[in-house]
Amino acid sequence: MISEPDRAPSETRDPACDEPPVVLLVEDDGLLLMEASDTLAEAGFTVLEAPHADRALQVLESRPDIEILMTDVDMPLGSMNGFALARLVSRRWPRIPVLVVSGMGSPGPHDMPPGARFIPKPYAPSALVLTLHAAVRRAA
Fold first, then answer.
1. What is the pTM of this model?
2. How far is 41 from 128, CA to CA, in rounded Å?
3. 32, 55, 76, 136: which sits with the fewest CB atoms below 10 Å from its CB?
């Protein structure tokens, strides 16, 4: 996990701010987690990692600087899958945009919270980076 010293809580991102956007990446597959984390770090994000939804919630509760959540759907560890995590984050932290990724097919009609984005796996790293940057800009 890449970590920076705790920053002062901020409810909204200042577009003029030089701080890199903070993304919480939730992925149970170690190799995919490492690849996505490296891609996002190279694209200028500060990446926080969680191997399952329960750990992601702990990170969200302790880090008010998280600006976007990216979660896989199928995570055998933990108490919920990525869709449930996406819906919970959307309710508890409505300012945080959500990106859901999965190689298991497309989401059903009630799987995703309003405003969440979906990218099927495998995804192109450039598409991932563009989608996350666009979501951060829209939320600013």
1. 0.87
2. 12
3. 76
- Where are the extended beta strands (E) located within the chain? 22-26, 46-50, 68-72, 98-102, 117-120
CB 21 within 8 A of CB 68: yes
Place of tokens 């409505």: 94
Structural domains of the chain, with CATH: 22-122 (3.40.50.2300)
Could you tell me the two tokens for 126?
A: 């450039």
Q: What is the pLDDT of residues 6-48, one digit of tens each?
A: 333 344 445 446 789 999 999 999 999 999 999 999 999 999 9
Report CA-CA distances (Å) from 1 to 46, 48, 110, 114: 10, 6, 32, 29
Cα(91)–Cα(85) distance, integer angstroms: 10
